[in-house]
Amino acid sequence: MRRLMAMMAGMVSAALVSCGRVDFRQTNDASHDAASDAARDAAVDAAPATGCADGVRDEFRDTLTIPRLAGCAGGWSVLGVLADRSGCLVTGNNSSNPSGQGCAAADLCSPGWHICSDQNDVAARVTAPDGCTALLRTGDVFYVTRQGSSGNGQCNGGGTDDLFGCGMASVTGGACLPLNASSNDRCTTMPPGWSCPTTNSRDELSTVVHDGTHGGVLCCAP
Predict the structure, then answer these.
(1) Count of beta carbons in the 10 Å neighbourhood of residue 213
(2) Which pLDDT tens digit goes with each residue over 81-132?
(3) Which domain holds residue 165?
(4) How many domains in the chain?
(5) Which tops the pLDDT comparison, 55 or 63?
(6) Is residue 54 part of a domain?
(7) Selection from 105, 87, 103, 188 nearest residue 146 by Cα
């Protein structure tokens, strides 16, 4: 009798799930939620992604106050920061491929996130008044964006000269706030692990590679 009752209860539960009245899955399932379980699932559905492909946010770690900006450490071997995702599935400094062999910089961001496009993209997600300086918690690192420049440390979107981001590289002098650091020509002021393999000193954004140490990319949520 007990076995029969258990079987009947299981059948009822399955029927309720299938018709959308009760959802026991507790995953990111907002499109399936019913009124009877919406409150229970709300915390799961609203939980922000780390923003980083390896599941670990290395900088801007407080996801409650800064949910939409992540510093994701790791390397890449596909030239530049502008390249699209390569399809690389394993990357990030907490993965089995920390140097990002065969990966693009964009692969370091969680699906749906992107390398922050410029200073305005970052500013829209940083609530602290002094931006990068207040939020970085480690030392000799750099987290790059896709901010364009025609040179001279100007964040004017006019080209691929130099790199701009958050970290301990050459200070930008306030011209690119909230971004506080720049690469200078051919990445000469960058921390260890960064390389701009080019004879053209005005094309770092398209040529930089990184070995996975001392930083990575800034990822922005949609």
Answers:
(1) 18
(2) 999 999 899 999 999 999 999 999 999 999 999 999 999 999 998 865 557 8
(3) 69-220
(4) 2
(5) 55
(6) no
(7) 105
Asked if residue 111 has a cis previous peptide bond (ω within 30° of 0), the answer is no
Q: What's the DSSP call for residue 83?
A: P
| Tokens coding 189 | 């002021």
Q: Are 34 and 22 in contact (CB under 8 A)?
A: yes
Note whether residue 36 is domain-resident. yes
60 in any annotated domain:
no
Secondary element (H or E) of residue 133:
helix 131-135
Q: How far is the C-alpha of 90 from the C-alpha of 100, rounded, in Å?
A: 8
- Kindly report the number of other CB atoms within 10 A of residue 79's CB atom: 17
| pLDDT tens profile 183-209 | 877 787 788 899 987 666 778 899 999
What average pLDDT does the structure give for the chain? Answer: 78
DSSP 41-64: HHHHHHPPP-SBTTS---BS--TT
DSSP secondary structure letter of residue 143: E
- pTM strictly above 0.85: no
Same domain (yes/no): 10, 104? no
* Residue at 198 is within a domain: yes
Residues 148 and 195 in one domain: yes
Radius of gyration, CA atoms only, the chain: 22
Q: For residues 96 and 26, state if they share a domain.
A: no
